[in-house]
C-alpha cells in the first residue's frame, strides 16, 4: 500500500499524548482560509518555489520538459508557471540555491513505519505513539487504514486528526485501530463554516456524534482567528459540544498563525486570508474566560 506523504515529524509533543511521530498526508476536502498547511490540499506532489532563494541563473529551465520555468519574477528574473509544472523534480538538483523543492513523496506503508518505529523507546517511556495528520487522513483512506493497522500491530498508541468531512464508513473501519481522534471544529454557524472552509458542517457534526457514541476518545480541536471565528456564537457552540459530550477528552484552542501565507505563495496559490496582528495573551485569556463562563472545563491553549 502506497500513499503521498508531505512530512514526517519525529519528537512531536502537540499531536496527542507523550512523544509522538506525526505523519502528514496530502489531500483535504476543505479549503480553510487560514490553513497553515496549504500544501496539503491536493493529494498529488507539488513544486514549491522560494523566490527569495533564487539567483535567476535559469539552470532549471534547461531541465524542465514542460517549459514551466520562465523569466517573469521581478526580483530574480525567474518565475514558475505552476499550470505547466508536472512536479517531476528534474529541476530540483540543478538549483544551486535550494529554491526548488517537491512537496509530497510516494511512500509505502512499511517505509513510513520504519521511520515511526525508530522512536519506539520514547513512545514506551512517555505514552506516545503515531499520529496521522494532514491534510485529511481520510482523503487517503486505504493508506491511512493500513498505517493504523500496522501501528497497532506494533503495540503503538495511535491518533488521527480529522476535519470530520468524510463518509462514516471510513471512521467505522479506522476506529478499532485508533486510540484518539483529534477532531477539528472550525465554525458553529453552517453558512459561516461554508464561507470559511468551502463546505457546511452538517456531515462533520454527524461524524462527531457517531464517533462519540461509538466509544472514540475525542479531543476537540478549535482553530481560532480573532475577529473571524472567535465570536460569542462560536465560543458558545464549543461549550455546547462540551456539555453535549461530557466524556470528551478536552477542548484544545489553536490560535491562528500566518505560516500558511508564505507557503501558499511558494506553491502558486493566492493567499485568501492573512491576519497580521499578534494573537496576544489577553485575547487568549478572553477565550478561556468566555468558555469558562459557559461552564466549559478541560480547556487548554496550544502553545
Commentary on this structure:
- By secondary structure, this protein is of the alpha/beta class.
- The chain folds into 2 domains: 2-43 and 106-301, TIM Barrel (Alpha-Beta Barrel), CATH 3.20.20.70; 46-103, Alpha-Beta Plaits, CATH 3.30.70.20.
- It is built from 9 helices and 13 strands.
- It has helices spanning 109-116, 120-126, 141-153, 168-174, 190-197, 202-213, 232-244, 259-266, 281-293; strands at residues 2-12, 20-25, 46-49, 69-70, 79-80, 100-103, 105-108, 129-133, 157-162, 180-184, 218-224, 250-255, 299-301.
- The strands form 3 sheets. It has a 9-stranded mixed sheet with strand order 7-1-2-8-9-10-11-12-13. Strands 3-6 form a two-stranded antiparallel sheet.
- β8, α3 (141-153) and β9 form a beta-alpha-beta unit.
- α1 (109-116) packs across α3.
- The radius of gyration is 20 Å and the shape is globular.
- The two termini are 35 Å apart.
- The mean pLDDT is 94.
Would you kindly provide a brief summary of this structure?
By secondary structure, the chain is an alpha/beta fold. The chain has 9 helices and 13 strands.
Keywords:
303 residues; alpha/beta; TIM Barrel; Alpha-Beta Plaits; nine-stranded mixed beta sheet; globular
Question: In this structure, how is the largest beta sheet organized?
Answer: 9 strands, mixed
Instruction: Please report which band the strand proportion falls in: under 5%, 5-15%, 15-25%, 25-35%, 35-45% or over 45%.
Output: 15-25%
CATH class of the largest domain: Alpha Beta
Low-confidence stretches: none
CATH architecture descriptor text of the largest domain: Alpha-Beta Barrel
What is the β-strand count? 13
**Rg (CA only):** 20 Å
Amino acid at each position: 500500500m502506497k500513499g503521498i506523504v508531505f512530512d514526517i515529524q519525529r519528537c512531536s509533543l502537540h499531536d496527542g499524548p507523550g512523544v509522538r511521530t506525526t505523519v502528514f498526508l496530502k489531500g483535504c476536502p476543505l479549503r480553510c482560509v487560514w490553513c497553515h498547511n496549504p500544501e496539503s490540499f491536493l493529494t498529488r506532489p507539488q513544486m514549491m518555489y522560494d523566490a527569495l532563494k533564487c539567483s535567476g541563473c535559469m539552470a532549471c529551465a534547461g531541465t524542465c520538459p514542460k517549459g514551466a520555468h520562465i523569466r517573469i519574477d521581478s526580483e530574480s528574473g525567474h518565475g514558475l508557471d505552476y499550470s505547466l509544472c508536472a512536479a517531476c523534480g528534474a529541476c530540483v538538483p540543478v538549483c544551486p540555491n535550494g529554491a526548488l523543492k517537491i512537496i509530497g513523496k510516494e511512500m509505502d506503508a512499511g517505509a513510513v513505519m520504519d521511520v515511526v518505529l525508530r522512536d519506539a523507546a520514547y513512545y514506551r517511556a512517555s505514552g506516545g505513539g503515531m499520529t496521522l495528520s494532514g491534510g485529511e487522513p481520510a482523503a487517503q483512506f486505504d493508506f491511512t487504514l493500513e498505517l493504523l493497522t500496522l501501528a497497532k500491530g506494533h503495540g503503538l498508541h495511535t491518533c488521527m486528526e480529522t476535519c470530520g468531512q468524510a463518509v462514516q464508513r471510513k471512521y467505522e473501519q479506522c476506529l478499532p485501530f485508533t486510540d484518539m481522534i483529534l477532531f477539528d471544529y472550525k465554525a458553529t454557524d453552517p453558512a459561516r463554516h461554508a464561507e470559511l472552509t468551502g463546505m457546511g458542517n452538517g456531515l462533520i457534526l454527524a461524524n462527531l456524534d457517531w464517533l462519540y457514541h461509538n466509544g472514540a476518545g475525542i479531543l476537540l480541536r478549535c482553530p481560532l482567528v480573532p475577529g473571524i471565528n472567535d465570536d460569542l456564537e462560536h465560543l458558545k457552540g464549543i461549550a455546547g459540544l462540551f456539555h453535549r459530550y461530557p466524556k470528551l477528552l478536552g477542548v484544545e484552542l489553536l490560535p491562528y498563525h500566518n505560516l500558511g501565507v508564505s507557503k501558499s505563495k511558494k506553491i502558486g496559490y493566492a493567499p485568501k486570508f492573512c491576519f497580521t496582528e499578534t494573537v496576544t495573551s489577553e485575547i487568549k485569556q478572553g477565550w478561556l474566560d468566555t468558555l469558562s463562563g459557559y461552564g466549559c472545563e478541560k480547556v487548554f491553549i496550544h502553545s
